[in-house]
Amino acid sequence: MVNSTEKSKQQLRSYYRQARRSLSNSEQQQAEAKLLEQLLSSGTLDNQRHIAVYLSQDGEISCQALINWCWHNKVHTYLPVLNPHKAGYLLFLPYTKETKMKNNQYQILEPVFDPQSAIDLDALSLMLMPLVAFDLAGNRLGMGGGFYDRTLSQKLAKNSPSTRPFPLLCGVAHDCQQAQRIETQSWDVPVDKIITPSTVINNAL
Ligand SMILES: Nc1nc2c(c(=O)[nH]1)N(C=O)[C@@H](CNc1ccc(C(=O)N[C@@H](CCC(=O)O)C(=O)O)cc1)CN2
Ligand SMILES: Nc1ncnc2c1ncn2[C@@H]1O[C@H](COP(=O)(O)OP(=O)(O)OP(=O)(O)O)[C@@H](O)[C@H]1O
């Protein structure tokens, strides 16, 4: 049975996914460049050595400018990979120019599965998380698979937000993905900040 929160979350998802898909190529390119500027000017990239990014799909704001910056500055980048041995969970695998890639079940490119090269969550210093929608209180809505929530809950949920060490969780989205209010549920892992091309929301957890 779908309760009212689930139903309204589905409606929000469909609305904000459509909104981000409607952006033009030039709006997307400007957003990608401004996202990198915001990450730099907010200090979010200071001293970061191991960053989880994603390859954009479905109108998501692109991390490509950030990825290029990381590679130029010798910062290690990682991509989420659906864990074939643990349904619903992600692993984070290194992403370089040489990484062999394949499409996952959602037609998103990911590194070819190799559990041995997966980085431990604690070793990531920053994780960029693609948002479908967010609100000014710093609540986020994802694609609805619970992949990030489940994966992060393995290590982070037990620690209080103020004591959890790594990674810094940073949701990223287009400005048009800002919603009035996103309801949170018990399993939602809060992000530390949300960055858009024109806003930085620091979550006072
Ligand atoms: N770029 C990117 N990579 C990511 C995520 C993401 O949100 N964005 N993920 C974040 O979790 C994970 C993949 N999760 C996803 C969850 C749902 C759908 C999706 O498109 N669902 C379709 C149904 C597709 C189908 O069942 O075949 C839909 O809801 O319309 C895609 C990715 C890992 N990689
Ligand atoms: N820690 C967890 N353990 C088990 N199930 C979970 C956990 N976290 C989330 N889920 C399940 O995942 C489903 C989707 O959760 P939710 O709607 O919060 O997704 P989301 O936040 O949009 O996705 P994501 O975390 O991938 O960005 C829910 O049905 C929820 O029960």
UniProtKB/TrEMBL annotation:
Catalytic reaction list: (6S)-5-formyl-5,6,7,8-tetrahydrofolate + ATP = (6R)-5,10-methenyltetrahydrofolate + ADP + phosphate
Enzyme Commission number, as recorded: 6.3.3.2
Cofactor(s) this protein requires: Mg(2+)
Keywords: ATP-binding, Magnesium, Metal-binding, Nucleotide-binding
Domain of life per record: Bacteria
Short name of any one Pfam family annotated for the protein: 5-FTHF_cyc-lig
Coiled-coil parts of chain: none
InterPro entries to which the protein is assigned, alphabetical: FTHF_cligase (IPR002698), FTHF_cligase-like_sf (IPR024185), NagB/RpiA_transferase-like (IPR037171)
Family assignment from sequence similarity: Belongs to the 5-formyltetrahydrofolate cyclo-ligase family.
Full protein name: 5-formyltetrahydrofolate cyclo-ligase
Annotated source species: Aliiglaciecola litoralis
